[in-house]
Each structure stands twice: as C-alpha cells, then as structure tokens.
Write a structure and sequence with these properties.
The chain is mainly β. About 5% of the residues lie in helices and about 45% in strands. A four-stranded antiparallel sheet has the order 1-2-3-4, with no helix packed on it. A four-stranded antiparallel sheet has the order 5-6-7-8, with no helix packed on it.
C-alpha cells in the first residue's frame, strides 16, 4: 500500500489491487481519497498498482505511477481533492530498451516539473519529463524503491534501496539489506512530496 498525505489533511492511498503474496494475477484497482472525518471514496479507478504519487506545486495536478503499466498517469485535482481529466503523463515503455522497462515505484517532483522515479526493475532512479523523455539516470547497486528531494536546498536526492523484491516482508526481515543512498542533483525539489 502507498499513500500521499497533503497539507489539507487529505490522503490518497494506492494498493496492489490483488494478493501478490498468494500469487494472484495482476488486475486493476482504485486510488482512494480519504478526507478528515469522511468515509473513503474512489478518486480514480482502473489503475494497475497506483504507487508513487506527486502533486504539482500549484496543487492542480496529481500524477501517480502505475507500476504494472510502466507509466505515469496525470489527473486534474480540484480543491475538494476529486480527480478528473485522466491522461498519460509518461509512458515508460516507449523509450525503454528491450528487457529494461522502468517500473515506477516511489517518486518526487522537481522545480522544472520533472519527476524523479525509483525503478526497482532497472535498479535506478530516473528523471522523467512529461511525454516520457528520460533526461537522467542514477544507477544503484540494488533495487531502488523510493526517492525524495530534500536537504537545505532540496537538491539532495535520497534513494531507498534494498536487495529484496519489495513484496516479501519475510525476506526483508531476514536480509536486512535496506539503506538510504544519497546524491546531489542540479534542480531542487518542490511540490508534494
């Protein structure tokens, strides 16, 4: 399960949509919106594992990584948190070499509107622009599961990595290979997260 909590108290929650531990087949699921004091509602449906999520600095666009579709999907975000005008922001399969399709996991946005995307399938963090162009790649030794721009000037890219698959909690407890790697980037972070 993934989530993004924003300053107004709303939370967007993604999920696998199937029981990966039981070997169930991949199927579409929903992105859920939870508002303080209200019942959860479906913000968007028919998504293939809505995972990493960012909101642009103007608070008007939500972009979610669909891990099993290898794409970033954008929505117009209204003041009440509802989503509309669904569109593909970046198809990561389009510019991938055969056998090396980045699958989006955790992600963050920078001042130029590019999105840093952790990709465990390709053991890297990529900087993606609207339309799908990848302008930077930062390889890691293991799998990259999440990333965040932080530090005083938000130019430090923190990368959460692990040897594991990210879907087996028992293996994660045994291996204890998780770590945070850092590197500096030129364009600072902004937006949420």
């Amino acid at each position: 399960m993934t989530w993004l909590l924003i300053t107004d108290g709303n939370a967007y929650i993604g999920n696998f949509g199937f029981n990966t531990y039981a070997g169930e087949e991949i199927k579409p699921t929903n992105l859920i919106l939870v508002k303080p004091g209200e019942d959860p509602v479906i913000a968007a449906d028919d998504l293939l594992f809505p995972n990493g999520t960012v909101i642009t600095p103007d608070n008007k666009t939500l972009i979610v990584g669909e891990t099993y579709a290898a794409r970033l999907t954008a929505f117009d975000k209204s003041e009440d948190g509802s989503l509309s005008n669904r569109r593909i922001w970046a198809d990561l399969k389009a510019n991938a070499e055969e056998g090396t399709v980045p699958l989006p996991d955790g992600m963050c946005i920078d001042e130029e509107g590019a999105i840093w995307v952790a990709s465990p399938s390709t053991a890297e963090v990529i900087r993606v622009h609207e339309g799908g162009m990848i302008s930077e790649r930062i390889p890691v030794q293991t799998n990259a599961f999440a990333c965040m721009l932080g530090g005083e000037d938000r130019r430090t890219l923190f990368i959460c990595t692990s040897n594991g698959s990210g879907v087996d909690p028992e293996a994660a407890l045994r291996e204890k290979s998780g770590k945070i790697e850092i590197t500096q980037v030129d364009v600072p972070g902004c937006g949420k997260p």
